[in-house]
Design a protein that fits this description.
It is a single chain. The chain is an alpha/beta fold. 62% of the residues lie in helices and 10% in strands. It is built from 19 helices and 12 strands. It has helices at 2-6, 13-45, 50-99, 102-105, 110-152, 154-201, 203-208, 212-237, 240-264, 270-312, 373-380, 403-409, 424-428, 437-446, 450-453, 473-485, 503-516, 552-558, 560-570, and strands spanning 332-339, 350-357, 362-367, 388-393, 396-397, 410-413, 422-423, 463-464, 491-495, 521-525, 537-542, 545-550. It has a 6-stranded mixed β-sheet, with helices on both faces. α5 packs antiparallel against α10 (270-312), α6 (154-201) runs parallel beside α10 (270-312) and α14 packs across α16. The longest helix has 50 residues, at 50-99.
């Protein structure tokens, strides 16, 4: 994990090295100042020598200015290194997420990924900055102050040594109790973000069903769980400051008592006692800063682990060493394919699928909910890999192709239609970046999207909100189909992508496919027989197995599942509840 995170420092290594260097120089200057102060008192003020007062005063002023300069440099380089580190973390996480297959993405919740890229990275950024500066400054100041104390007076320095041992034990006890609590806190952040994200995304459904109170209670529960954990952790940390103050003032009282006796006995000068007071405050402040570091590190340890999980996640799907860069045609072969989403699943989602589809054919796919229709077509563009058997496109195993080449030639309009914030043209050009306006118009005509685009005030320059929330479901589907057509693919997969359009528009889209892209292999998943009855062949799936694969007429005669669906829809019944 540490190696994974340190690799993200990248070009900020120089700043990361200079920060502790300047911090060490700053500490050195600050350590020398009390020593010079003692000389001013003992050799200047008490001796009545103003020349030495001026000399040592000038040296002290110079040390103060140098300390200020080194501190500014340490702060500047520390800020650059920590913010750069955070930027690299977010970039690397985002880039790695883009390489994930669907199976990789299934391991993480959307809310969890958002939390990792925001809250967790911020925690790590703060911890890194503190590590570069305070984690160098505090121990160095502590050690140097202790050395100077022992140089001045060994007996009095034993007071500090006992205090340090006591505080160290107290800090270890507190940190051991708070670290597990912070591990739980960040998992609760995921629940909180999930609640917000789900509510905002489905706000129309929430209002339609008058579920605002329920959603408020759900969010309040998540917020209160987070609150309770934080209070518990912070309650333990609250012992830190009182304990620190007790030790500091205890040391000052003991130092004053024993120091006064030493001055009277002639074994200690007034200047040296003043220096000891400065050093004891420096040591105690260093301990306080160290306790802050322990708190931050205990919080960031959980964040670091969660970030490393994303960075170390390796894509399940990779290109072969010498990938094929061209696809001959749109023929598709499923050779005894079985598939499951999890390797240790007890039952496969697809069982022994053996299909052979010619280039240019139109294939309809129908079946009950959860029968594996989407799973089947996801294997063609290699969104998932098969468990057994092979899937071939253009006569070659899909695993032998460069994935970018394969997915450019196998266009998929997924069941869940997604549009991005931007103009209609911007969204269409996801299919082809350099597409002209006329090319976009042509595919919109094929997808029957031009009918509503031309009615919009800004036409193809109309701005779409995130998710296409300002257009209807049917309009979103038609835009997504047009976007896929713009790729000029050899295989076009429509995963229930005309469910929100009326039957007349559905018929027009299918007619355009027949005339405009006759050489493209078309796979149409639909719950409506009217959408697929004119296909060259129709695949009927039942519980992940092929129940039938033939023309509409032949399936009516030979396949009872298809016949039931047909009768239910013709008689006005429901697909999942066929009429008697």
């Amino acid at each position: 994990m540490i190696k994974t995170l340190f690799r993200q420092i990248g070009e900020y290594k120089r700043d990361s090295i200079l920060t502790p260097v300047f911090t060490a120089l700053e500490v050195l200057m600050e350590i020398l100042i009390p020593f010079v102060t003692a000389s001013i008192i003992d050799k200047g003020i008490e001796a009545g020598d103003m020349q030495k007062v001026c000399l040592y005063g000038t040296v002290m002023l110079l040390l103060a200015f140098l300390s200020l300069f080194f501190g500014i440099q340490a702060g500047r380089f520390g800020a650059s290194a920590s913010t750069g580190f955070a930027c690299n973390l977010r970039d690397s996480m985002y880039e790695n997420i883009q390489t994930f297959s669907f199976s990789n993405i299934d391991k993480f919740s959307t809310a969890g990924l958002v939390t990792r890229m925001t809250t967790d990275v911020t925690n790590l950024q703060n911890a890194y900055q503190m590590t570069l500066r305070i984690a160098v400054r505090a121990p160095l100041m502590l050690i140097c102050s202790m050395i100077m104390c022992f140089i001045i007076n060994v007996q009095l320095s034993m007071v500090f040594l006992v205090a340090l041992i006591f505080l160290s034990c107290a800090l270890i006890f507190i940190m051991s109790r708070t670290t597990p609590l912070f591990n739980q806190v960040f998992s609760k952040y995921d629940d909180l973000n999930a609640s917000v994200q789900e509510n905002v995304f489905a706000i129309r459904v929430v209002k339609a069903f008058v579920r605002e109170d329920y959603e408020n209670r759900k969010f309040t529960t998540a917020a209160e769980n987070l609150y309770r954990l934080f209070v518990k952790a912070e309650s333990l940390l609250a012992f830190n400051n009182p304990m620190m103050m007790l030790v500091i003032y205890g040391c000052i009282i003991l130092l004053s008592w024993f120091g006064a006796h030493a001055i009277v006995g002639g074994t200690l000068t007034t200047g040296n006692l003043t220096s000891l007071f400065s050093y004891v405050m420096s040591m105690m402040m260093s301990l306080m800063m160290l306790s802050m570091i322990f708190v931050m590190l205990s919080m960031s340890a959980a964040s670091a682990k969660r970030i490393a999980e994303v960075l170390e996640e390796t894509p399940d799907l990779t290109d072969p060493e010498k990938p094929l860069m061209t696809i001959e045609d749109g023929s598709i072969d499923f050779n005894h394919v079985s598939f499951s989403y999890k390797k240790d699943a007890n039952e496969d989602t697809l069982h022994d699928i053996d299909l052979h589809i010619k280039a240019g054919e139109t294939i309809g796919i129908i079946g009950g909910i959860g029968c594996g229709k989407s799973s089947l077509v996801n294997l063609i563009s290699r969104l998932y890999d098969v468990s057994d058997g092979t899937v071939c496109v253009g006569g070659r195993d899909v695993r032998s192709y460069d994935m970018e080449t394969l997915r450019n030639q196998v266009a998929v309009v997924l069941q869940k239609n997604v549009l991005f914030s931007g103009t209609i043209l911007d969204n269409l050009r996801w299919g082809k970046e350099d597409a002209s306006r006329e090319e976009c118009r042509e595919v919109c005509r094929q997808a029957c999207a031009d009918e509503f685009i031309d009615r919009l005030p800004d036409g193809y320059d109309t701005w779409l909100e995130q998710g296409g929330s300002n257009v209807s479901g049917g309009q979103r589907q038609r835009l997504c189909i047009a976007r896929a057509l713009l790729k000029r693919p050899k295989v076009l997969i429509l995963d229930d992508s005309t469910s929100a359009v009326d039957t007349a528009t559905d018929a027009k889209i299918r007619e355009a496919f027949t005339k405009k892209i006759p050489g493209t292999t078309k796979l149409i998943i639909s719950q409506r027989i009217s959408s697929i009855e004119n296909a060259d062949r129709i695949l009927v799936l039942d519980e992940g197995r092929v129940s039938g694969f033939d023309t509409h007429e032949n399936l009516l005669k030979t396949n009872h599942i298809y016949h039931e669906i047909y009768d239910a829809q013709v008689q006005g019944g429901d697909f999942d509840n066929p009429a008697a």
